[in-house]
């Protein structure tokens, strides 16, 4: 496949990395522990593109996803990067 | 960026790897253009090494490594080989792609477009931003869609009403927010299920787009929630690049390029039982229509084994004679030749270019899906192309795109049947299906089958399997869900049942 940036595809929402500093305040404001957040696979094409831009992303990082929402205009979603399959 | 790409032997690469800076004598004369990088491949398709090229000079005797013994033209000064992982499709040679590299070539690298586009947050209008900030002051987050509407009317309604409006929005949002421990999944299931019963069972499930069939209605909805690996009618919608999308010629060319063409589509296959030969008589008109050349066919025919091939370009015939003289073999060859692929992409059976409106752009619809390969075509806009194969989307574009695809497809399927289901229910289903980072089906093999509670799983399907497994492995059930609490006869953990109240009583102080 030709190299192309999947993040620019119209079906792919914005992905960005939540920095380690922000993580704690984020989890506190959501009142949730990291294990309960939805997952994203390490092999996900969007993660690979993100790594190409900002360098390697360690496991357990939180990815902020800003979606275009038909009801709210835009909505923010979070996923935890995890290797392997979720049980 | 210009680069020299070449195919090399393992032995030569090993020699180049030994030193930091090597002078490499090659049988290739680069042009005068500035060249900084070189890429080395061992198989002509995948490139394993990247190297910086310091200078290029005519061949003298001072080279460290020789590519071959004779015919050397120039010397490349290479500095430090680094491993990379690139594919031949990353390069363009005079603006064109090639399938395989044989010797040296000068090409251009198609770099990954890494410049981030403006985010949604950055795109927000300053007026809208003010509204959002005002809402934030009242300590709530206003949805963007509402803020846009308010910002547009702000001047019209006046400052006083504006303040009041924000207050009203806040009250409304609080009132309409879903309550904690509300069973949203059950509500979603009901809300989709009830209109689903109105779907006519088998009729009107196919919508013809000229000669193309697309599964619709109930079967399609079941397909989506079951997360089938391959949908029953995979189909793609291909958009062309913005500057080419109105050209009929380009659209036709792309259609021809992706449509799978077999020998029978362009030729007559005649079997001569007397001579024991199979001859392919190519039809010129059909070949032109499908943009097939004689060499394409003769190249494709080479795949047939154990035959003597005699191509004749003048009469446009190719004669195949099996080496083994038997009718059985002859028949086998004939059958093999008929279905031989000449060009096109695997999986794409048909492609049709259509104009959505007068002077509108051309859009190509296909039967069969191959996202990866179609994206590779130069004229196609890779950022807009879609398919109805959700699993393929999740593999190529990621889980978030797959979630969008689940939502879009189910919404469209319901809408086509004239059913109205609140979008939020479909979003919930899409979110649940993509929760784990890969697309999971709704049901025994997916969401329900992976519940943490043994009793909940046993209550759903294949009871004995789950109970037996739980017994063998000594699983515990913490009784936090609904089904398991009904089984043991406790109040369920929903609504008021989710609150634990402890009455301490009125302690009398003595």
Task: Provide structural commentary.
- The complex is a heterodimer of chains A (87) and B (510).
- In chain A, strands 1-3-4-2 form a four-stranded mixed β-sheet, with helices on one face.
- Chain A has a single domain (6-82), classed as RPB5-like RNA polymerase subunit (Eukaryotic RPB6 RNA polymerase subunit), CATH 3.90.940.
- Chain A has 87 residues and is α+β, with helices and mostly antiparallel strands.
- Helices cover 24% and strands 29% of the residues of chain A.
- Chain B is an alpha+beta fold.
- Chain B has five domains: 2-109, no CATH class; 121-176, no CATH class; 185-210 and 219-230 and 389-449, PTS-regulatory domain, PRD (Orthogonal Bundle); 261-343, Gyrase A, domain 2 (2-Layer Sandwich); 451-498, DNA polymerase, domain 1 (Orthogonal Bundle), CATH 1.10.150.390.
- Chain B has 18 helices and 20 strands.
- In chain B, the strands form five sheets. Chain B has an eight-stranded mixed β-sheet with strand order 5-2-6-4-3-1-8-7, covered by helices on one side. Chain B has a four-stranded antiparallel β-sheet with strand order 18-19-11-20.
- In chain B, strand 13 (267-272) and strand 14 (277-282) form a beta hairpin.
- In chain B, helix 3 runs parallel beside helix 4 (144-176), helix 6 runs antiparallel to helix 14 (399-416) and helix 14 (399-416) runs antiparallel to helix 15.
- The longest helix of chain B has 33 residues, at 144-176.
- The mean pLDDT of chain B is 82.
């Amino acid at each position: 496949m030709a190299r192309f940036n999947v993040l620019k595809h119209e079906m792919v929402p914005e992905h960005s990395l939540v920095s380690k500093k922000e993580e704690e305040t984020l989890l506190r404001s959501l009142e949730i522990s990291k294990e309960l957040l939805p997952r994203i696979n390490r092999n996900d094409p969007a993660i690979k593109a993100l790594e190409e831009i900002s360098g390697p992303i360690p496991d357990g990082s939180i990815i902020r996803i800003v979606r275009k929402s038909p009801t709210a205009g835009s909505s923010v979603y979070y996923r935890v990067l995890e290797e392997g399959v979720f049980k | 960026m210009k680069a020299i790409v070449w195919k090399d032997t393992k032995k030569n690469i090993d020699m180049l790897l030994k030193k930091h800076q090597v002078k490499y004598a090659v049988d290739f004369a680069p042009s005068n253009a500035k060249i900084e990088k070189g890429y080395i491949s061992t198989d002509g398709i995948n490139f394993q090494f990247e190297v910086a090229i310091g200078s290029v000079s005519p061949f003298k005797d001072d080279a460290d490594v020789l590519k071959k013994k004779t015919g050397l033209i120039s010397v490349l000064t290479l500095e430090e080989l680094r491993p990379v992982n690139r594919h031949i499709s990353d390069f363009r040679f005079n603006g064109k792609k090639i399938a395989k590299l044989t010797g040296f070539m000068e090409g251009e690298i198609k770099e990954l477009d890494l410049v981030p586009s403006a985010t949604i947050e950055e795109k927000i209008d300053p007026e809208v931003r003010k509204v959002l900030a005002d809402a934030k002051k009242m300590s709530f987050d206003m949805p963007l869609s509402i803020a846009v509407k308010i910002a547009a009317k702000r001047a019209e309604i006046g400052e006083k009403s504006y303040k009041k409006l924000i207050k009203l929005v806040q009250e409304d949002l609080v009132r309409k927010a879903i309550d904690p421990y509300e069973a949203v999944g059950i509500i979603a299931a009901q809300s989709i299920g009830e209109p689903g019963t109105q779907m006519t069972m088998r009729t009107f499930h196919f919508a013809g787009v000229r000669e193309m069939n697309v599964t619709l209605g109930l079967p399609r909805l079941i397909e989506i929630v079951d997360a089938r690996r391959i949908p029953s009618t995979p189909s793609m919608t291909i958009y062309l690049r913005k500057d080419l999308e109105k050209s009929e010629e380009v659209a036709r060319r792309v259609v021809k390029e992706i449509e799978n063409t077999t020998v029978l589509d362009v030729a007559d296959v005649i079997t001569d039982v007397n001579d024991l030969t199979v001859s392919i008589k190519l039809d010129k008109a059909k070949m032109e229509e499908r943009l097939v050349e004689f060499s394409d066919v003769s190249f494709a025919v080479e795949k047939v084994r154990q035959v003597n091939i005699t191509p004749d370009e003048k009469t446009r015939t190719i004669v195949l004679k099996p080496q083994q003289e038997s009718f059985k073999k002859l028949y086998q060859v004939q059958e093999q030749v008929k279905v031989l692929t000449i060009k096109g992409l695997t999986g794409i059976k048909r492609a049709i270019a259509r104009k959505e409106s007068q002077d509108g752009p051309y859009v190509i619809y296909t039967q069969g899906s191959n996202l990866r390969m179609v994206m590779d075509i130069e004229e196609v806009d890779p950022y807009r192309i879609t398919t109805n194969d959700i699993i393929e989307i999740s593999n190529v574009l990621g889980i978030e795109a797959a979630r969008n695809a689940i939502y879009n497809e189910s919404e469209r399927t319901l809408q086509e049947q004239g059913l109205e289901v609140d979008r939020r229910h479909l979003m919930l289903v899409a979110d649940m299906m993509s929760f784990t980072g890969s697309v999971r089906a709704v049901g025994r093999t997916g969401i329900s089958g992976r519940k943490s509670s043994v009793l909940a799983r046993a209550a759903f399907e294949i009871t004995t399997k789950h109970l037996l497994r739980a017994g063998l492995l000594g699983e515990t059930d913490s009784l936090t869900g609904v089904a398991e609490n009904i089984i043991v006869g406790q109040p369920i953990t929903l609504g008021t049942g989710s609150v634990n109240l402890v009455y301490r009583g009125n302690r009398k102080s003595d």
